[in-house]
C-alpha cells in the first residue's frame, strides 16, 4: 500500500492543502476543500492508499480507501 494523501487546512494562508505522507510540502493548494479533495483523490487512487480528509480544525473527519482497506466491511450473509 502506498502513502496516504491528506487534505488539510492551512490557517495562515486560508487554503486547503493536498499533502502526501512523508512530504513536507503540499502537492497543491486550493481555495475550497472540495477542490482539494478532487485534486487529492487521483493521487490516492494512483498510490492505492487512503484519502484522509481533515476538518477546519485539522481533525480527521473522513477516509476513503483506494487500496487494501485495513477495515473492509464485513460480509453479511442472511
Write the layout of secondary structure elements.
Elements: E1 5-10, E2 15-20, E3 28-30, H1 33-47, E4 50-54, E5 60-65
What can you tell me about this protein's structure?
The chain has 78 residues and is α+β, with helices and mostly antiparallel strands. It has one domain. The chain is 19% helix and 33% strand. It is built from one helix and five strands; from the N terminus they run βββαββ. The protein has a five-stranded mixed sheet with strand order 3-2-1-4-5, with helices on one face. A hairpin with a 7-residue loop joins strand 2 (15-20) and strand 3 (28-30). It is globular. The model has no long low-confidence stretch (mean pLDDT 89).
Q: What can be said about this structure in brief?
A:
The protein is of the alpha+beta class and 78 residues long.
Core attributes:
78 residues; five-stranded mixed β-sheet; 1 helix; 5 strands
Alpha plus pi helix count: 1
* Major sheet summary line: 5 strands, mixed
Computed structural class: alpha+beta
Relative helix content: 10-25%
| Shape designation | globular
Low-confidence stretches: none
Oligomer: single chain
Order of helices and strands: EEEHEE
Report the sheet-strand fraction.
25-35%
Strand order of the largest sheet: 3-2-1-4-5
Question: Over the alpha carbons, how many angstroms does the gyration radius reach?
Answer: 14 Å
The averaged pLDDT comes out at: 89
The total count of strands amounts to 5
Number of domains: 1
- For the termini, the CA-CA separation is 32 Å
